[in-house]
Automatic annotation (TrEMBL):
Gene3D superfamilies with a match to the protein in the record: Jelly Rolls, Winged helix-like DNA-binding domain superfamily/Winged helix DNA-binding domain
UniProt KW keywords: DNA-binding, Transcription, Transcription regulation
Domain of life where this protein originates: Bacteria
UniProt xrefs under InterPro entries: cNMP-bd_dom, cNMP-bd_dom_sf, Env_Response_Regulators, HTH_CRP, RmlC-like_jellyroll, WH-like_DNA-bd_sf, WH_DNA-bd_sf
Name used for this protein in its record: Crp/Fnr family transcriptional regulator
Taxonomic source organism: Vagococcus penaei
Amino acid sequence: MTIEEIGRHQKDFCYISDQDIKKMQSVSIVRSYKKGQVLFDPGDTINAVYFLKSGVIRLEKTDPTCTFFYLHYIKSKQLFPRVGLFTDKHHFYSAIAHTDIEVISIPIDIFSDILSNNSYQLKYWITKQSEMLKLQIIKIQKGTLNNADTRVTATLALLCKELGEKQYPRGNVTIPCPVTINQISQASGTTRETTSTIIKKLIKEKRITYSHKYLNFLDAKYFTDFLVD
């Protein structure tokens, strides 16, 4: 799948002219990464934006004391990174292949020039950034509460929203890739043992199932409502 094939089917490209789509296509590169490979780290020069063709990307950042941990997942058919496109010279966080992935790499100067000269596409880009910012504000609000149950539930709710795939006709929401207890606990700012206890409680309440590192949200509305401020 190329940029030309993706163009009219993805909102990140739908307002871009055929001429500009072909321009991006001529300079884009398709790359594959194995699970665990790093695409970039904090401080690396921003050379490209990536369209995730398949798989899941994990964005991470820790402070120097390893006390605060940022974790965000991106599923396929999305562009990243969305931070600092027009202002930053260096990456702010790490991007790691959470599963085997395939990406299309588009040179940053080409993409930013096309986007800045297309008001409709730029508006969509800003809208997506606003949605991400709102989610992060909610995560900060929930994450600063002195209640581990709330923090872990908020992390699960974000996973449900970011990676969830609704299953029909039952209406449950599944996560298509493994997520470990350690990753949930790091994102929640609590211990592995506490996280495990809270997950067991949610399983007992029939909110979720958790088997072989795969999450299944039986009561997706409970987690969706949890993110409403």
